[in-house]
Specification:
Keywords: Signal. Pfam families: SLT (PF01464). This is Murein transglycosylase. It comes from Myxococcus fulvus. By secondary structure, the chain is mainly alpha-helical. It has a two-stranded antiparallel sheet with strand order 1-2. A hairpin with a 4-residue loop joins strand 1 and strand 2. The longest helix has 21 residues. It starts with a helix and ends with a strand. The N terminus and C terminus are likely disordered.
Length: 785
């Protein structure tokens, strides 16, 4: 074990010792929509991207603030007596550490290490006094000092003082949950049962927006135990019901179920459990439970409306659209709730669009008319336009697309509506109007215009302008900019391919990818100094930096608690680089995904390379290489596909039952396994990374062979099925690849192809320096490994 690993392991041991002082504290093809079905218009990830506000660049005020350099992350105990004292703490020699520190200047870090040594050495009186003083003086670590001071005072049986200090731990701190559990325990010892229950309830309430997480469930069960011990059976019953209903697949829910035997299960809690099961894609148990509710109450009773809505959603997810329509119609006709009726209209319109498009047009129009301020109003207008287009009513469709963008310019579908309008104008050979629609995308509010929508508009603007004599260079300039600034996106790859075809000399002018063969010097791992921007006043960032400098493993948790949304590029990179210093690679990748999108979407450079590597990691690389090559699939293509399918989560499960890294449907996996003579495969096999990658690679290899090596066709077939791809090819036999992809009938598949091939290109650029080239009728890599 090298020095760095020993340091981290020792630091973690110290942390564990401190914590223990007081004792406890998109998918495989079988998911494809049915023939004529619109598909999921937006995945959850795509919706999140649409809703995100693009990060702003540093302001002049930010840049004027003193920059943050690596010296501000330097360890406090790196040399001399301080290093020896820190080493003694790691070895468990706490008295010796305090002796070494006795003659040192009493800086805050020195005082912190002395107090920590006292606490770990069980000198609770000294620790309580020193940590209480530090809670006042060491502002960034106030919460940590308060928690540890409270733990020491609890050991000293100074319960009132301990409770006061536990209460002071701020709700935004990663230590808040531990402080609340400890406060409840102390108040129980003081026989303040209402206060103990309130402490737990405050923790539950603070996590309400996060959903049924493990800490919330633990707090609810703690309330159950405390309430039972005090004979507060109604309180216990209500907490058990919440566990059982809101986290139905958890171990805690199973424990709650056992304790609820013989007790009544009110209808409202059955509905809540049914709704949670639908969200978790457990449609069978959900519909069985909801059917029991609907047998007892009818619309317009609110519980009946909710039950019908959740049941209809489950049927829609299972593509039982006619049954879904039957289930949702009573909600639309009889329920008046402004919360549930719009949702029912939305889901009803979806199912109708599959089996009865003209009725869906009426349903979406009703939703847009009756609830113009609802979050679904712009969705409804857009889908109404889409169905009008699908049924051949092109003039009406164009009017609705334009209305969507005009009435809801900040909505999720404004840019998509303008792009659809562009295609309709193109079909009418109205070039000026088509260009105007694309240019309108640029004028949309930044919050409603994703990066992809913007560059899609610029790419197609260049395509429309191509017939202009190329001496004007207008289209070529756009292609060059797009290929340079968005090299790892679908449209960046398309732009590079157009340059290769139209002006290869321009392609040769593009900057080489840094860090690949041909570069003379090593890329920089970090960029310093950086303006901290809002991080300058962020208490979580300050705490994370101090703990990092103190060698404490809690630094990563503090940095993860920083609100990174909306940070401009420089502070976002500062947060990322600081997280990298903690050694928590997965946490660093999370920060990169959330806060450094602008840099990841920009050019690949020596400075951005670490961020790219965190965003496109080589997870499960050995397994992917082994089975991809055996199936004659480029490993980078399979790596990109798995990244988009599961984000490298081996236990990922889709709404329709696709499993594992490569998101295989069990039926598809069985067919592939039979072809490979592997015998039968079940769910447990598909949740094993090696087996899942083996079958996924083999299936993709089969599709590549069927479509003559065309990667775009094969990837589309992986999502929507090979027969669907055959139909789309026949519908547009003369279309070039870029146009063909834009006209894929299933929205989910269309975006899936773009994202998978974009990730494929990112892996190629990042790890080989060889871009993927997309040609008019085929897709191929510049070279294969």
């Amino acid at each position: 074990m090298d020095g760095r690993r020993r340091l981290r392991a020792s630091a973690m041991a110290v942390c564990v010792a401190c914590a223990g002082l007081v004792g406890g504290a998109g998918s495989a093809w079988a998911q494809a929509p049915e023939e004529g079905e619109p598909g999921e218009v937006l995945s959850e990830e795509q919706l999140e991207q649409l809703l995100d506000t693009p990060a702003e660049q540093p302001s002049g005020a930010e840049l004027s603030v003193a920059s943050f350099g690596p010296e501000q992350l330097a360890p406090y105990f790196a040399e001399g007596v301080l290093a020896r004292a820190h080493s003694e703490v790691r070895r468990g020699r706490f008295a010796k550490a305090r002796a070494l520190l006795a003659d040192q200047e009493p800086t805050l870090p020195v005082r912190f290490l002395r107090a920590q040594s006292a606490l770990l050495g069980r000198d609770y009186a000294t620790a309580a006094e020193e940590l209480a003083a530090l809670a006042v003086d060491y502002v960034p670590l106030k919460d940590h000092c308060l928690l540890w001071a409270a733990q020491a005072n609890e050991k000293l049986r100074k319960l009132e003082l301990a409770a006061s200090q536990y209460r002071e731990v701020s709700s935004g701190s990663p230590l808040y949950a531990e402080a609340r559990f400890s406060l409840s325990r102390v108040l129980q010892r003081k026989r303040d049962i209402p206060g103990a229950l309130q402490a737990l309830q405050e923790l539950i309430d603070s996590r309400q927006a996060r959903g049924p997480d493990a800490l919330r469930m633990k707090a609810l069960l703690a309330i159950c135990d405390l309430a039972r011990a005090q004979g507060l059976y109604n309180v216990e019953h209500r907490a058990l019901l919440e566990v059982w209903a809101t986290s139905p697949l958890s171990r805690e829910a199973q424990r709650a179920k056992e304790r609820l035997k013989g007790l009544p299960l009110p209808l409202k809690w059955k509905v809540r459990r049914g709704e949670a099961l639908v969200e978790l894609h457990r449609h069978g148990p959900a519909t069985e439970l909801l059917a029991g509710v609907m047998a007892q109450v009818d619309p317009p009773d609110e519980l009946s409306c909710r039950a019908h809505l959740a049941y209809g959603r489950a049927l829609r997810k299972e593509r039982q659209h006619r049954r879904a329509i039957q289930m949702l119609t009573p909600v639309v006709e009889k329920c008046t709730s402004a919360e549930y009726r719009p949702q029912a209209l939305y889901v009803l319109g979806y199912s109708q669009s599959v089996v009865d498009p003209r009725s869906a047009i009426t349903t979406y129009a009703t939703l847009a008319r009756d609830y113009p301020e609802h979050g679904y109003a712009d969705d409804a207008l857009f889908f109404e336009a889409w169905l009008l287009q699908r049924t051949g009513q092109l003039g009406e469709a164009l009017a609705r697309y334009q209305e969507t963008a005009e009435r809801y310019p900040a909505g999720n579908f404004a840019s998509e509506a303008l792009f659809r309008a562009f295609w309709l104008h193109t079909r009418r050979e109205a070039k000026a109007e088509a260009l105007s629609a694309l240019e309108a995308v640029e004028r949309l509010p930044a919050a409603s215009r994703t990066d992809e929508a913007l560059w899609r508009a610029r790419y197609w603007r260049a395509r429309v302008r191509e017939p202009v004599p190329l001496t004007s260079a207008t289209a070529l300039d756009d292609y060059e900019q797009l290929a340079t600034e968005r090299p790892a996106t679908w449209y960046g790859m398309l732009a590079r391919s157009r340059l290769a075809m139209l002006a290869p000399e321009r392609l040769g002018r593009l900057s080489p990818v840094p860090g690949t063969s041909g570069d003379a010097e090593e890329p920089a791992d970090e960029v310093w100094p950086l303006p901290p921007g809002p991080l300058r006043h962020d208490v979580r960032f300050a705490a994370g930096v101090e703990l990092l400098r103190l060698g404490h493993p809690g630094a990563a948790d503090e940095l993860l608690a920083v609100n990174s949304r909306g940070l401009s590029e420089a502070p976002a990179r500062l947060l990322y680089q600081t997280m990298v210093r903690t050694g928590r690679k997965r946490a660093a990748r999370q920060v990169a995904r959330e806060s450094l999108r602008r840099e990841v979407q920009g050019p690949l450079s020596a400075e951005s390379r670490p961020v790219w590597e965190a965003t496109w990691p080589l997870a499960f690389r050995n397994v992917i290489q082994r089975y991809s090559k055996a199936s004659k699939v480029d490993p980078d293509l399979m790596q990109g596909l798995i990244r988009e399918e599961s984000r490298f989560r081996p236990t990922a499960r889709s709404s329709t039952g696709a499993l594992g890294l490569a998101q295989l449907m069990p039926a598809t996996a069985k067919q592939v396994a039979q072809a490979l003579k592997l015998g039968d495969v079940g769910e447990s096999n598909l949740l094993q990374p090696a087996q899942n990658v083996r079958l996924g690679s083999a299936y993709l290899g089969q599709l590549l062979h069927r479509f003559g090596g065309n990667v775009a066709y094969a990837v589309a077939a992986y999502n929507a099925g090979p027969h669907a791809v055959d139909r789309w090819r026949q519908a547009l036999p003369q279309a070039e690849l870029d146009e063909w992809v834009e006209h894929i009938a299933f929205d989910e598949t269309r975006e899936y192809v773009k994202h998978v091939l974009g990730s494929y290109g990112a892996y190629k650029l990042l790890y080989t320096g060889q871009p993927v080239m997309l040609h008019p009728t085929k897709v191929e890599a510049a070279s294969r490994r």
